[in-house]
Design goal:
Strand content: 5-15%
Helix content: 25-40%
Distance between the termini: 17 Å
Strand order of the largest sheet: 1-3-2
Mean pLDDT: 95
Structural class: alpha+beta
Shape: globular
Oligomer: single chain
Radius of gyration: 11 Å
Number of domains: 1
Length: 78
């Protein structure tokens, strides 16, 4: 499982608008502390059409988050 897949799974399980710390905690409880830098990865998972980074190298199929406000995201229709 990749970090992106774990983030998507966390949003599906928790639902709604979630902060970086909530997602990090949920993932670390289930998969251990194997990934770092959730904030950067989550920011890179926002599609350009929703204000995401033009420099992000994330594939389109992982660009599934919407930034609601600083540090808060929600899963787009996935």
């Amino acid at each position: 499982m990749s970090q992106n897949e774990a983030i998507i799974e966390a949003f599906q399980a928790l639902g709604g608008i979630r902060g970086i710390a909530e997602i990090t905690s949920w993932i670390n409880e289930r998969y251990g502390n194997q990934w770092k830098g959730f904030g950067t990865v989550m920011a890179d998972m926002v599609p350009r059409s929703h204000g995401g980074n033009a420099s992000s190298l994330e594939p389109k199929h992982f660009r599934v988050l919407e930034r609601v406000k600083r540090g808060k995201y929600r899963l787009l229709n996935y």
